[in-house]
């Protein structure tokens, strides 16, 4: 042993030194008061100074810039708290699930396998209630054109299933009286009427199509041109409306109308 140095036995190990190395490191990170002791020379040997906490190691307690509230984004000093997210609107998948539930018992038949087909064609559960206010011929015509398999390869429902669905829809009228605007006011107004295109679209055979006002005007339609199609052959009017307004064929990148909405518009024009 070198002269001037005291025996290690005179310096008992501290409690931190007795612990495993990894535990001492954890304790150092857990407490700001644990720092490596500094040594200075002395004629009688090394003297260890008691460790002192540095000013930077003692942080002030966190403060809030404003009261915490789940509806308001608050900030914890140095940490931004995210605001509560709002729920998304009902999706197309949600509509399909609602239709599937409704279709499970159609005159004791389960037609829920066709829920996706109905959703793609523009049907919703509330709109089925609107169809219940239509005439029998209009309901049958719409369902036959939209749900029976097409010559173009579109999959559809069997005739028995379509007729069963039609009967179930007709029964909705007795269950939900007054649930939809009267169809008599949802037809194209005559020439003498001062009704605008925007007002007409609010009730087209009981459906609110006002969100498609921009689409119709962009495609060149106004009330006068809609009235002009009443003198055309039925197949010609159907083709013009379908090719210019339907979602899968609307030009200019505009959001198109569903097949059910195009049929409703056609019916409203044809009844003038």
Which labels suit this protein?
272 residues, two-stranded antiparallel ribbon
Description:
The protein is an all-alpha fold and 272 residues long. Among the domains are: 92-180; 182-272, no CATH class. 40% of the residues lie in helices and 3% in strands. It is built from twelve helices and four strands. The protein has helices at residues 15-18, 21-30, 92-102, 115-120, 125-131, 136-147, 159-175, 197-201, 213-218, 223-228, 234-245, 259-270; strands spanning 39-40, 47-48, 75-76, 79-80. A two-stranded antiparallel sheet has the order 1-2. Strands 3-4 form a two-stranded antiparallel sheet. Strand 3 and strand 4 form a beta hairpin. Helix 5 (125-131) packs across helix 7 (159-175), helix 6 packs across helix 7 and helix 11 (234-245) runs antiparallel to helix 12 (259-270). Mean pLDDT is 73; it is low at 4-38, 61-90 and 249-254.
Strand line-up in the sheet with most strands: 1-2
Secondary-structure class: mainly alpha
Average residue-wise pLDDT:
73
Rg for CA atoms: 38 Å
Point out poorly predicted stretches.
Answer: 4-38, 61-90, 249-254
Total count of helical runs of at least 4 residues: 12
Q: Beta-strand percentage?
A: under 5%
Helix and strand string, N-terminal first? HHEEEEHHHHHHHHHH
Apparent shape: globular
Q: What's the β-strand tally?
A: 4
Region (Disordered): 44-73
Biased composition (Low complexity): 51-62
Brief digest:
Among the domains are: about 90 residues; about 90 residues, no CATH class.
């Amino acid at each position: 042993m070198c002269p001037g140095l005291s025996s290690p036995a005179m310096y008992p190990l501290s409690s931190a030194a007795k612990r495993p190395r990894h535990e001492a490191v954890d304790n150092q990170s857990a407490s700001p008061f644990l720092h490596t002791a500094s040594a200075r020379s002395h004629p009688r040997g090394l003297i260890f100074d008691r460790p002192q906490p540095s000013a930077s190691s003692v942080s002030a307690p966190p403060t809030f810039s404003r009261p915490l509230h789940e509806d308001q984004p608050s900030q914890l000093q140095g940490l931004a708290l995210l605001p509560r997210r709002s729920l998304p609107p009902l999706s197309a998948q949600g509509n399909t699930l609602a239709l599937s539930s409704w279709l499970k018992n159609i005159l004791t038949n389960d037609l829920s396998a066709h829920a996706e087909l109905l959703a793609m064609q523009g049907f919703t559960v509330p709109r089925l209630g609107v169809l219940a206010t239509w005439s029998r011929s209009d309901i049958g015509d719409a369902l036959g054109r939209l749900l029976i398999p097409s010559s173009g390869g579109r999959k559809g429902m069997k005739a028995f299933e379509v007729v069963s669905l039609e009967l179930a829809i007709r029964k909705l009228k007795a269950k939900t009286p007054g649930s939809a605007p009267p169809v008599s006011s949802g037809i194209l107004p005559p020439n003498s009427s001062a009704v605008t295109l925007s007002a007409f679209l609010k009730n087209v055979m009981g459906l609110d199509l006002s969100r498609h006002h921009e689409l119709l005007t962009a495609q060149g339609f106004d009330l006068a041109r809609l009235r002009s199609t009443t003198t055309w052959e039925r197949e010609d009017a159907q083709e013009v409306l379908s090719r210019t307004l339907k979602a899968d064929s609307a030009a200019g990148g505009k959001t198109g109308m569903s097949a059910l909405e195009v049929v409703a518009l056609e019916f409203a024009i044809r009844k003038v």
